[in-house]
Sequence to fold (311 residues):
Amino acid sequence: MKQGVIDYNSIAEIIRGISSRKHNGELRIEPNDHLVTLLFFKGRLVDVIDSKADSTAQLLDKLAQLGYSTPPDRDIQGLTFGSVVQMVFTINEKLTAEKLTEIFKELILDRLTAIDLSVGKLFEFENKVVEFEREFAPQLMVGQILIELDIVRTDAKKFAEDFPGDKLLQIEKEALRIYTNPFKPIEEQIIDLLIGGPLPVSILRSRTIASLGGFISAIQSLCAKGLLVVPDQNIAQNKSAEISEEVAGSSAIEQPLNEYRQEGFVSYAPTRGLNESELVKIFLLNNICYLYLFVIIFFPFIAWINFFDYF
Fold:
């Protein structure tokens, strides 16, 4: 069992050591009055357990924010975390295993970056067989962990000052229309949410599947591309009133927010469908394909007709 003091300067070395040796085990850190346990499987991070946090409640809250159905408290009393996960997966037909894994990844990284390592904390690592949700848990590599820690450590404070939770953001639709480069998945999520109008940063954060570091990077990237702007004051005030009424009148979202429900069917509206230049490319490509099919079918037909006429 390895013991010592861990902080922002030493955590990279400690995690790299676990990863390079492909250890199975628990890295236990004691920040203040509680215990945080990092579970590693073959050197990869598969879960973070905070003794002061309810992992089941965090998962169900996130699923509800994303518009998925969650079982009532009475149905999950006494159930293990794994059993609750299986129940959630069963009652949500549109919840794929990949999406559930992404949600797990967000929650795990957010619990990790919540640990304040600005001052050294006691830690111990024990080699042992760990129990975790094998079907849906992500297996995070050391690079992913360190990038997340670095972004949150260096940018989170300034981001909170520049983008407080009640600050409204909206898409610059003209800039989006002429933008031709591909977006990252988290950027597409944010754009899809903002197509209908401005939303506060806190709502955007809750309705996207991304860790804090991933969300910060996506907002910064979209702003740098000129695709995110702050609406004028009148629009902002009206939208704030609408959001307040919506929150007051409903405690849950009825369906996933990146889908648009109409008269009994649901259709997905992809972000790139709004990009005019890409639509032109698709239109030209389709026409070329149709022309090619016409040529390879029509010309042999004419040739056979001429052949029979000759004889």
User: Anything to note?
Assistant: Confidence is low (pLDDT under 50) at residues 250-279. Residues 276-310 form the longest helix (35 residues). The chain is about 50% helix and 15% strand.
